[in-house]
Amino acid sequence: MTGAAGFAAWAGAAIIVLADGRRGLAVGIALVGAGFTVLAWLAGDWFGGAALLVGVAVCAIQLLRTGRQEWGLMPPGSTARLILAVVGGILSLWVAASVTTGAGAPLKFASVTVLSLLAARLLQAQKAVQVLTASAGLAIALAGASALGRSVPGLVPYLVAGVIAAGVSLLPVAESRGA
Amino acid sequence: MEPELAFALPEVTLYISAISRAALLAAAGSLALIVVFPPPKAERATLLMWGVAGIAAMAAIAAAPSLDLVILLTLAIALLHSALAGRRSLAARLRAPALAVALLGLALVFARLEGPPILAAFAAVGLVAGLAAALGVLPYIHEFDPDEVTAASPIVWMAFLGPVLAIAVITRARELIPTAAAAFQAMLIGLGLLNILWGGLASWLTEKGTSAWHYSFMADWGLVLCAFGVLVADGQSAALLVLYTILLSRLPLYLWSRQPLRDRVQTEKPINLLAAAMLAGSAPFAGFAARVLLLRGATQLYWPLALVIAIGLLMWLPPSLRLGRSLGLPRGRQAVGAGIALALSVAIGLYPQPILSLAGL
Asked: Which B positions 158-217 lie with beta carbon below 8 A of chain A?
């Protein structure tokens, strides 16, 4: 189950990397959120997982409710992004399963792969909705990764991440203006 | 019997370190200076509102009990800041701070993974890269539009939020990766030297006056990074004093110079020369004390480093003369403000001990 959750998180991040449209981004963030929620629940953090789930649900629903609805999956010229998504996943799997020792490989894999893929997406994205969705994914992954620490992270990181994920979809995208 | 639905609320311990308190105090002082003596055409209420919001954000970062929360709060602040109307697109405004969050997050994950020592070295690289991206220094210079309103520009990250964020990340990083601490310090010094060189040259040679100010902040940050990298007491004291000069001298002067820069006014009065001396870190201003402490600390660590830094310090002279001239001739409230900024800098330069004691140094 934890392996499937880690895989879902990678798939979500890969879709955020590959999609330009709101529908694709909504599916991507939903998968990232679902992956980390399940990982939190399986670690016994019920309220933390619920906070992530609510935040991600608001974000995904807002993406599907507003703006121009299109998938925008793998538009022409996406080969580099596809290679990034696959190679990023394989490298993260190698780090989590082979380089590191100790338990919790699915959470390590999910954290490394989502953070690195979304960092690459931030560098490449041109539209506000793409950058905002990647930011929501980052918040979710950061909260999930807090469970890797030696001390118990508590509810606060999950709550903050949930609020950020929900908040990005409600953020007013201000028009540019001069000094 | 009714089922129990109560659950314990998470206990969060809020504690602000002495050095963060000192930086917060400087930020509050800078805000007070700017609000009491506002730049021409700036609304005092707007300055106060955004300034207080910034101070609250800095206090939240300084009081966050873990690096996880520092990074999440930084992301929240980046999102709110990018929502302000600026000349750049939202993607351009959010890209660098969000990338910083991703890099810092990756560093945190690598620091927590059990395995070979190379993982801690990766964490050190991520922390330094993330910090550079958050501050907007080389190699992650934020996209800068000289005509953009300051509250929405990258100057907010470099000159207002940056000091507290840098202190929060650097002080926690030392505890997080003790095995890669030497590599972390070395990278800070290397990045610092690079920014001193690049910031100094670009500030001197760039065409636009506002961009020259932007690069001058980068050069100052180079000094701060070098000083934080010199892990002796003098280095840390120097870092704090340079942060004070950024907050209490360079930032107010930058804001007051915006209008003369738009009007293309340049003057060479005594006030301009004094401002140039302050920006260049000449005696008896605060920058001079910071530079002396940094050179002393670098000599203790490795004397050739002090030599390289000493040569680098010469880079401040030509751009500071240029920036000092761009202040124009301050009149009325601004003249009083510039006078207070100069006096504060002299006071700190002559007797920095109260500030260092406040920071526990």
From this structure: none
